[in-house]
Amino acid sequence: MRYTRLGHSGLQVSALALGCMSFGEPDQGGHRWSLPEDESRLLIRQALDHGINFFDTANVYSNGSSEEIVGRALADFAPRDEVVIATKVHGRMRPGPNGGGLSRKAIFAQLDASLRRLGTDFIDLYQIHRWDPEVPVEETMEALHDVVKAGKVRYIGASSMFTWQFAKAQHLAEGNGWTRFVSMQSHYNLLYREEEREMLAFCADQGIGILPWSPLARGRLTRPWGDTTRRSENDAFGSALYDTDSGDRAIVERVAEIAESRAVPPAQVALAWVTQKSPVTAPLIGVTKASHLDDAIAALGLDLTQKEMDALEEPYLPHPVAGHTIIR
């Protein structure tokens, strides 16, 4: 495993982050395909054995069950100061007023709930899980600054939004002496490259780490076009992200061709492409099998040639913006 700094911060993270949406009791929340605790623990332990120190979850994953499982596993398998725990806030955790969003009240309440579920005194990277148009961004940024100063959070990050929104938040933080975001979780993979228009360039210029989510396009880059899995058949969010061909089939076929020529699984090729794109810091890999994690680790050692990179990118056609809104 290799390690890198998250943007211009001093935080060192593994070049792969384990996305923990796959871990959670299937009867809680909306992820019926998620893994129960006993199966999740095996994969978390495997990730640690591979040198992964970066674990990303969210309060809404399996209605908090993901945080509980990840927190217990990491407490059992690793010293707290050797792992980087990231979680998120925004999604609705209960009905009624203030049950979600990025108000000061919601952030304070949801952070304390996440700390309890994770069984830790602090979050290494606390991220806003999308933009909240109903709350003044000044309120959100000051609240995030306050939880950092209270010692409950070490760094803050953001996830999919328009670049102007992200720039506005950073500008307000800088102007008021508040804590700035050190990372951006972007929807970015071979089937969705709209982030290359502005967001990636902005983050590179500002020294902000990029953490791509869905780097394998919900598995669509890992299997023949048209094949489905239990997750893809029950993943409404994934269907909303990738509901049209728009040149996607040609890209999937290119991945398969290069994988065959390299004698490696398609997942390795698709993930290697992401890791070789600047300014990517660490893609968030979701796994439900040990082989998925093995492929991700192997992808770090797969150096694609410029000719192969060009071949993978050539069929791409512009896509509508996707991923800025959470669908449950």
Automatic annotation (TrEMBL):
Annotated CDD domains: AKR_EcYajO-like
NADP-dependent oxidoreductase domain span: 16-314
Keywords: Oxidoreductase
Gene Ontology MF: a single term: oxidoreductase activity
SUPFAM superfamilies assigned: NAD(P)-linked oxidoreductase
Matches recorded under InterPro entries: AKR, AKR_Detox_Biosynth, NAD(P)_OxRdtase_dom_sf, NADP_OxRdtase_dom
Protein name: Predicted oxidoreductase
